[in-house]
């Protein structure tokens, strides 16, 4: 079974719980893995005109985690989010983490949306360097779906190293057990490669 991705609840979540003493999140009303106390439900940040993402400790921590990931990302995929027109505070926080678009000359941004390319270019100009973006209406047409797990590596090899690769698409109409079985074949080699890199680092640090 492949490891699950990290999930950040940037506006809270009715099913999420949080231990403020140990700063651990999980399912609401589950037990904290450290102190054993019940995880309290997290607050919800409603779609009001002016949001304060720093007011609550949990929301602030989720944004901090998200911005750290965004700062170090090579590729991002946005699903159906219209962008700056609906949430100036969020887009400001995201653009600060992303940094000046002039310094993101190699990064690629993808959008799964019903908006057209012109709208996307206008709404997301702070995240797009020239032509380095793509817009798809169907998730299965996206680079993420055609090259799952190693998406950024596949993109780099094809467009920067000129190593043209066949697509390795996610199966359509598969249920979760089918997807887990399909993804499991990638997990073992990834773990093996990660363990090899860890051992090489240890050898290098001890020499």
Concise description?
Among the domains are: 73-167, no CATH class; 171-207.
How would you characterize the overall build of this protein?
By secondary structure, this protein is an alpha/beta fold. Among the domains are: 95 residues, no CATH class; 37 residues. The chain is 37% helix and 12% strand. It contains 6 helices and 6 strands; from the N terminus they run βββαβαβαβααα. The strands form 2 sheets. The protein has a 3-stranded antiparallel sheet with strand order 2-1-3, with no helix packed on it. Helix 2 links the parallel strand 4 and strand 5. Helix 1 crosses helix 2. It is globular and about 50 Å long. The mean pLDDT is 83.
Give the termini separation. Answer: 35 Å
General shape = globular
Mean pLDDT: 83
Strand content: 5-15%
Number of helices: 6
The count of strands amounts to 6
Along the chain, the helix and strand elements come as EEEHEHEHEHHH
Largest sheet: 3 strands, antiparallel
Q: Give the radius of gyration.
A: 20 Å
The main sheet orders its strands as 2-1-3
DSSP helix fraction: 25-40%
Q: How does the helix and strand content classify structurally? A: alpha/beta
Residue windows where pLDDT falls under 50 for at least 5 positions: none
């Amino acid at each position: 079974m492949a490891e699950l991705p990290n999930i950040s609840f940037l506006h809270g979540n009715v099913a999420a719980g949080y231990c403020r003493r140990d700063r651990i999140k999980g399912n609401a009303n589950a037990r904290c893995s450290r102190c054993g106390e019940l995880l309290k439900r997290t607050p919800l940040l409603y779609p009001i005109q002016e949001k304060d993402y720093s007011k609550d400790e949990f929301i602030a921590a989720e944004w901090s985690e998200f911005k750290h990931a965004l700062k170090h990302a090579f590729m991002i995929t946005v699903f159906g989010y219209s962008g700056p027109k609906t949430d100036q505070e969020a887009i400001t926080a995201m653009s600060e983490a992303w940094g000046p678009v002039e310094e993101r000359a190699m990064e690629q941004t993808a959008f799964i949306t019903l908006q057209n390319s012109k709208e996307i270019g206008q709404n997301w100009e702070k995240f797009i360097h020239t032509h380095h973006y793509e817009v798809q209406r169907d998730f299965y047409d996206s680079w993420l779906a055609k090259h799952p797990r190693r998406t950024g590596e596949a993109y780099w090899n094809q467009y920067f190293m000129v190593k043209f690769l066949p697509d390795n698409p996610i199966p359509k109409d598969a249920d979760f057990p089918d997807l887990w079985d399909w993804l499991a074949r990638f997990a073992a080699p990834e773990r093996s490669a990660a363990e090899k890199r860890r051992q090489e680092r240890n050898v290098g640090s001890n020499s």
